[in-house]
Amino acid sequence: MKYQDLPITGRVWQWRRFSFRLSLRNLLVCCCLLVLALVLGCYAMTVGRLPIGIPQVLAALSGSGDEGIFGHVIRNIRLPRVLVALFVGAALGVSGAIFQSISRNVLGSPDIIGFTTGAASGAIMQIVLFDGGTLQVVIWSLAGGMLTALLVYLLARQGGAVRGYRLILTGIGVGAILSAFNGLLLVKGDLDNSIMANLWLSGTTAARSWDHAIPVIVGVIVLLPLVLLGAHRLNLMEMGDDLARQLGVPVERMRLLMLFAGVMLAAVATSATGPIAFVALAAPQLVVRLTAGRGVPVMGAALMGACLLILADLFTQLMPVGITVPVGRMTGIIGGIYLLWLLTRTRQI
């Protein structure tokens, strides 16, 4: 394996037919975000009605602690919640990076385009109409997200290709219809199931178990390498479909593949916590501003999304006078402020 120095982009390692570009600044930012996510995750496991210190958390995680109440609380209650927050944030961050690249617009986020709403529609149907369990909610959420993505893609397709603005506007329209449909389900469904679905719609990491954590962990582990392999072609597609075709990129096939990966990540994240706003929109943009880099920031967006969501979850737990705010509502408030700031700072919209 060898590398060469580039004046702007950093270093490129080459091995046979494969090459890997590495920016030292990107690496430093990603390492800092990884350390921050781990520190916040460990601290989050000390927060709760039962006071637990960092040494007890580390002992329980390493298996050297006792099997008493502390070990049970850490491994079966707080650890699943922390892992859900970290991996849901990572999934949303990568999904946002994919859709912002495909649409070539900073508003290309799954919660704005409507894919998250579609995943929520599938989950709400299962909760309200069939009173399903966690696995059923995950499956219906994935199905709802995929059907929504297929509908938006077909409606946005024009002249054999999908344009960024058309994708966003079509997604907003479909998302508005599905949002009204979700409200109708809540009104017409059984009272208890509707209350449960309404709580789920607020977006929360509370009372998450391993049944919620495992699907989103598996989803991120399976789909993240796929996105990393396709990131280079996404970078070429951002220069224009015609130029990308000349460079050998199968544009529509690649767009469909990345669309599938982005929707699956958003849907599996939504199935674990309910709709979470802001993270998919902000994580890629924040990483780009920190690294001053170009291209699709896949790993950076994943780590930034994880940090944002675990930080928001900690903030909701540490609010004064016992105020309980679902993390989805908190990220929605922050996201609205961020979106207004973004609209005043960019000329892409």
From TrEMBL:
<dbReference type="GO" id="GO:0033214">
    <property type="term" value="P:siderophore-iron import into cell"/>
</dbReference>
<feature type="transmembrane region" description="Helical">
    <location>
        <begin position="135"/>
        <end position="155"/>
    </location>
</feature>
<protein>
    <submittedName>
        <fullName>Fe(3+)-siderophore ABC transporter permease</fullName>
    </submittedName>
</protein>
<dbReference type="InterPro" id="IPR000522">
    <property type="entry name" value="ABC_transptr_permease_BtuC"/>
</dbReference>
<keyword id="KW-0812">Transmembrane</keyword>
<keyword id="KW-0472">Membrane</keyword>
<comment type="similarity">
    <text>Belongs to the binding-protein-dependent transport system permease family. FecCD subfamily.</text>
</comment>
<feature type="transmembrane region" description="Helical">
    <location>
        <begin position="112"/>
        <end position="129"/>
    </location>
</feature>
<keyword id="KW-1133">Transmembrane helix</keyword>
<feature type="transmembrane region" description="Helical">
    <location>
        <begin position="256"/>
        <end position="283"/>
    </location>
</feature>
<dbReference type="GO" id="GO:0022857">
    <property type="term" value="F:transmembrane transporter activity"/>
</dbReference>
<dbReference type="GO" id="GO:0005886">
    <property type="term" value="C:plasma membrane"/>
</dbReference>
<feature type="transmembrane region" description="Helical">
    <location>
        <begin position="327"/>
        <end position="344"/>
    </location>
</feature>
<feature type="transmembrane region" description="Helical">
    <location>
        <begin position="213"/>
        <end position="235"/>
    </location>
</feature>
<dbReference type="Pfam" id="PF01032">
    <property type="entry name" value="FecCD"/>
</dbReference>
<feature type="transmembrane region" description="Helical">
    <location>
        <begin position="167"/>
        <end position="187"/>
    </location>
</feature>
<dbReference type="InterPro" id="IPR037294">
    <property type="entry name" value="ABC_BtuC-like"/>
</dbReference>
<keyword id="KW-1003">Cell membrane</keyword>
<keyword id="KW-0813">Transport</keyword>
<feature type="transmembrane region" description="Helical">
    <location>
        <begin position="82"/>
        <end position="100"/>
    </location>
</feature>
